[in-house]
């Protein structure tokens, strides 16, 4: 058919359509419920000029829909948006990888056969990547070996992937508790940081997924336990051993800061030891307030409750905190240390004063926390430890009156100066470069720390050895996760986009 014949046909159809509806006396508007209503005169006039007198338009409104229908429609919209956003982002990343490969091959002075080989290799990897993206990860893909940790809202389990036999640490978090305690932003920050990070100083995330009850983070298993367990076992480190661990912690914290995050809860519990004896940072959800440890208001409420329970106490009695602790009190603190780590209260021993004061803070707060760990490594206990968290909080707020180095502990001038330079007010605290250049770290090979033999290497009997985890303190926990409260479908939308799968260059993670 010629272009002129097509135009005549369209004109004829338009004319017939107009003629067939010209008898309509008024313009009508169809609502979603199927009822027709008259439009306003002004609207009719303007529409007539644009569309013609026979134009029928629909008024889009959800007024006649039930609340259930509206919520379902909203849920569908959000899920579709999330699905296509992820698909588009993946396509952009894939195109970027292809462009980068082509650019690299064009710049390289290699034969065409080698270029074709590289392209075939790239296509194979991309095919495997797409296959991994289509694979749905479920809880049934993993077999529980042992529970190795327990927190306020979930557990950490040693699991083995059924199809590959690889071993992981699986962190579970209860969705209902996350919603109740308003921790969505925190668990999202943990997931995003772990997914984004490729640093050897940060624990690696391989998968994240969810079901109606729990969120799951499948991470690498670090069989050496944590620094808290080592401190409880050895009590005090030498300055040489402390120097090694502090140097690795500095690089780990720097890696987190470079990603644009603040850990905010640096403590020995969150510093893990890999199979080679080197350190990695973990528990970024806890660091942003998963426990109440980073909630300054929480400890203020504790003090207020103390006052309410005993009105006769005056301010002098409330603030009567011992400068030092007896050996018996220190032993009690150490005995309760693990229990506090498992509780919703947590331990405030390592948190910077500006976090409690709620006046705003930056990445400087992480260096205070590392200074407190430094102190514990060489002294044997945390600098502001007390028999209850509220006294610890008060000591930290008034730290100039309570930062005390015991006379029986002999430290080098460099060590004490560095601790004091890290545990000071935020505006006077040393930054990462100043810490690295401090005389205490004189001669440190910062670029090759991970290749230096560490002072302790875990002696492991198998890939599932949990000798360095205090599993006996956890009691007899069931292998199956307990059935907890399920969140509604509308609230479950808050966890959209939580799923993640790490592509490891063709190897099954």
TrEMBL record:
GO terms for biological process: cytoskeleton organization. Residues 1-47 have a biased composition (Low complexity). SMART domains: S_TK_X (SM00133), S_TKc (SM00220). GO terms for molecular function: ATP binding; protein serine/threonine kinase activity. Residues 142-441 form the Protein kinase domain. PROSITE patterns: AGC_KINASE_CTER, PROTEIN_KINASE_ATP, PROTEIN_KINASE_DOM, PROTEIN_KINASE_ST. Residues 1-52 are annotated as: Disordered. Residues 442-509 form the AGC-kinase C-terminal domain. ATP binds at residue 171. It comes from the Eukaryota. It catalyses: L-seryl-[protein] + ATP = O-phospho-L-seryl-[protein] + ADP + H(+); L-threonyl-[protein] + ATP = O-phospho-L-threonyl-[protein] + ADP + H(+). It holds the Pfam family Pkinase. Its EC number is 2.7.11.1. Keywords: ATP-binding, Kinase, Nucleotide-binding, Phosphoprotein, Serine/threonine-protein kinase, Transferase. Belongs to the protein kinase superfamily. STE Ser/Thr protein kinase family. COT1 subfamily. This is non-specific serine/threonine protein kinase. The lineage of its organism: Eukaryota, Fungi, Dikarya, Basidiomycota, Agaricomycotina.
């Amino acid at each position: 058919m010629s272009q002129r014949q097509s135009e005549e046909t369209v004109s004829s159809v338009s004319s017939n359509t107009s003629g067939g509806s010209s008898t309509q006396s008024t313009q009508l508007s169809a609502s979603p419920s199927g009822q027709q209503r008259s439009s306003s005169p002004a609207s009719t006039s303007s529409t007539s000029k644009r569309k013609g007198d026979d134009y029928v338009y629909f008024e889009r409104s959800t007024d006649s829909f039930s609340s259930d229908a509206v919520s379902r429609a909203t849920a569908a919209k959000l899920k579709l948006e999330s699905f296509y956003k992820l698909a588009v982002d993946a396509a952009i990343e894939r195109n970027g990888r292809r462009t980068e490969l082509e650019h690299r091959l064009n710049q390289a002075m290699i034969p065409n056969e080698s270029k074709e080989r590289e392209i075939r290799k790239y296509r194979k990897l991309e095919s495997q990547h797409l296959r991994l993206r289509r694979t749905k990860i479920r809880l049934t893909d993993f077999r529980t070996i042992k529970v190795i940790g327990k927190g306020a809202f979930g557990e950490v389990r040693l699991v083995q992937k059924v199809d590959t036999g690889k071993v992981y640490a699986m962190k579970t978090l209860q969705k209902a508790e996350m919603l109740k305690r308003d921790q969505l932003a925190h668990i999202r920050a943990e997931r995003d940081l772990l997914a984004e990070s490729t640093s050897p100083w940060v624990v690696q995330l391989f998968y994240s997924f969810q079901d109606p009850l729990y969120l799951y983070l499948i991470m690498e298993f670090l069989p050496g336990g944590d620094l808290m367990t080592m401190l409880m076992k050895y009590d005090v480190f030498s300055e040489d051993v402390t120097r090694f661990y502090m140097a690795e912690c500095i690089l780990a914290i720097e890696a987190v800061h470079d990603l644009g995050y603040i850990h905010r809860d640096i403590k020995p519990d969150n510093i893990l030891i890999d199979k080679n004896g080197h350190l990695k940072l973990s528990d970024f959800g806890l660091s942003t307030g998963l426990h109440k440890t980073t909630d300054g208001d929480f400890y203020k409420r504790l003090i207020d409750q103390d006052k309410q329970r005993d009105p006769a106490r005056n301010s002098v009695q409330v603030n009567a905190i011992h400068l030092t602790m007896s050996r018996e009190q220190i032993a009690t603190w150490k005995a309760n240390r693990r229990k506090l780590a498992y509780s919703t209260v947590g331990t405030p021993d390592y948190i910077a004063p500006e976090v409690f004061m709620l006046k705003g803070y930056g990445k400087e707060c992480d260096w205070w926390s590392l200074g407190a760990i430094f102190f514990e490594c060489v002294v044997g206990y945390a600098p502001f430890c007390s028999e209850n968290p509220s006294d610890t909080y008060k000591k930290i707020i008034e730290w100039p009156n309570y930062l005390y180095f015991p006379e029986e502990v002999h430290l080098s001038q460099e060590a004490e100066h560095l601790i004091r330079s890290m545990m000071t007010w935020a505006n006077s605290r040393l930054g990462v470069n100043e810490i690295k250049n401090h005389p205490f770290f004189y001669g440190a090979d910062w670029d090759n720390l991970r290749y230096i033999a560490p002072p302790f290497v875990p002696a492991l009997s198998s890939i599932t050895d949990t000798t360095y985890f205090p599993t006996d303190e956890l009691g007899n926990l069931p292998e199956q996760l307990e059935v907890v409260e399920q969140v509604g479908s509308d609230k479950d939308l808050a966890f959209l986009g939580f799923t993640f799968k790490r592509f490891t260059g063709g190897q099954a993670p």
